[in-house]
Amino acid sequence: MSNLWKAFLASPFVVGTVLSSTGIAAETAETVSVDALSSSDSIQLAQVTSVSELSDVLPSDWAYTALQRLVEEYGCLEGYPDRSYRGNRAMTRYEFAAGLNACLDVIVQLIGGTDGDDLDTIRRLQEEFAAELATIRGRVDTLEADVAELEANQFSTTTKLKGQLDAHLVVPFDAPDANDETTFEYRARLNFDTSFTGEDRLRIRFQAGDNENSLTEAAGGLSSGGSGGDNDNVKLDDVYYAFPIGSRVSAIVSANSTVSDDFVTSTIVPFDGPSVADYGGPQFYDQLGIGGDSLGVGFNIAFTDNIILDAGYATGDGQDSGTGIFEEYEYIVQLNFLTDGLIDAAITYMDGESDLVDDDAIIAGLLNLDFGGFEIGGFYADQDGDESWQGGVAVTDFLGTGNAAGIFYAEDFDDNEVAEAYYSMKINEYWTLTPAVIYGELDGGDDALYGAIRSTFSF
User: Fold this and answer.
1) pLDDT given for residue 32 in this prediction
2) Tens of pLDDT along 59-113?
3) What's this model's pTM, rounded to 2 decimal places?
4) Which partner for 330 in 85, 214, 290, 319 could form a disulfide, CB atoms 3.0-4.6 Å apart?
5) Does 367 have pLDDT greater than 90?
6) Do 208 and 431 form a contact (C-beta atoms < 8 A)?
7) Max mean pLDDT range (25-39, 143-157, 323-337, 389-403)
8) Cα atoms found within 13 Å of the Cα of residue 362, Cβ hemisphere only
């Protein structure tokens, strides 16, 4: 009977090896080419007698114990001729068959030494679990058919298409007569995200939308509105390549539309994203207004899991404005302290050179305190004695998972004021609805109060 139990002990390792390998294949399928997989079909696997013979398997690996037992107790694990195991790459069907055959040989040998009672027990177990085995076999067949369908109709082996549509209905409750009309505006985006290694991203974005005519008394307008001045015309909005350099450094090189806050790991405040008004994000990032249309270069260095340094350099229009990449520019340096607990904070320094804008240096501090889903956040920035600041509170998962509520007040360097109360509701996986009440007052102008509803579709 001991041989029987050894056989059953071996079986979970076979299944575990299969499932682990299948999971790895699923994770890496987007970045491993068919040619790369098939090229190893002809490699002859080599039997090993000790896990220490595998040069790329370490005791710290999560599956080390399982590999050790498969090698040293059951003798049914094979490596490559160079004594590597390559545990993080997808395996071919040939490699699967070879590994499974080796383990089945061991099971057959163990069962061969059993007596009649043991065989009767095996037959009884087979009959008892026949329905479950048939169900599993049916599911595997279905999965194989689904995979074949996806492979036959996939858009690309390296590129994913993602889209987003933001539609805004804005109603002036109290606004100057010249700007008291109800408006409806949209912005549509299509992102082509390509990965060559599984850790990098090449993004090309196309965008179209209405000219932004709402929130005229609220500086900054809508956070996801406008189309760069091209009313209903499709334009190229993003072209950049982001990639890791080792385990703690990442970099980005951009040719279009990358500006200051695109270089930072976090904008810290909880209103940036859920808010309908643009001033939900830190306004000072947009103050210099230089970069984005010629060249952008940035990097992020994670000194620890919590301390991260960001740096970025962005240039203007290049030949379109008669300037090169060293003549009209802005740069940003931000040191972040990011946690999963109470405090997220950052210190930011920005400067630049341009004949078109006030390009004095900006020094800012950002802070967010998270009391278990109830957050208090904001920033303070100084530019040659002029001040800009924001403060407010936000609640995550408010009245439902994925929802967010918040209220904030912001003032920019020109003494323009914006305040907003919003509630972002996640209707389903693809649709988010955000009603908001927005107050705006331009310096020296009239104040206004707006009601707005933003509908966001992501696909």
Assistant:
1) 38
2) 888 888 888 888 777 777 777 777 788 878 877 777 777 777 777 777 777 766 6
3) 0.67
4) 290
5) yes
6) no
7) 389-403
8) 32
**Greater pLDDT, 442 or 105:** 442
Per the model's pLDDT, the better-predicted residue between 409 and 19 turns out to be 409
As a three-state string, the secondary structure of the chain is CHHHHHHHHHHHHHHHHHHHHHHHHHHHCCCCCHHHHHCCCCCCCEECCCHHHCCCCCCCCCCHHHHHHHHHCCCCCEECCCCCCCCCCCCCHHHHHHHHHHHHHHHHHHHHCCCHHHHHHHHHHHHHCHHHHHHHHHHHHHHHHHHHHHHHHCCCCCEEEEEEEEEEEEEEEECCHHHCCCEEEEEEEEEEEECCCCCCEEEEEEEEECCCCCCCCCCCCECCCCCCCCECCCEEEEEEEEEEECCCEEEEEEEECCCHHHCCCCCCCCCCCCCCEHHHCCHHHHCCCCCCCCCEEEEEEECCCCEEEEEEEEECCHHHHCCCCCCCEEEEEEEEECCCCCEEEEEEEEEEECCCCCCCCEEEEEEEEECCCEEEEEEEEEECCEEEEEEEEEEECCCCCCCEEEEEEEECCCCCEEEEEEEEEECCCCEEEEEEEEEEECCCCCEEEEEEEEEEEEC
Distance CA 22, CA 389 (A): 51
Mean pLDDT of the chain: 82
Question: Who wins on pLDDT, 89 or 304?
Answer: 304
> Which pLDDT does position 13 carry in this prediction?
42
CA-to-CA distance for 38 and 27, rounded, in angstroms?
18
End-to-end CA distance of the chain: 56
User: Counting beta carbons within 10 angstroms of the beta carbon of residue 394, is it exposed (0 to 12), middle (13 to 18) or buried (19 or more)?
Assistant: buried
Q: What would the two tokens of residue 75 be?
A: 């003798």
Residue that is written with structure tokens 């009239």 in the block: 446
Q: How many CB atoms lie within 10 A of CB 4?
A: 19
Domain boundaries, the chain: 2-114, 159-458
Interior angle at CA 337, CA 383 and CA 282, nearest 5: 35
CATH classification (class only), 159-458: mainly beta
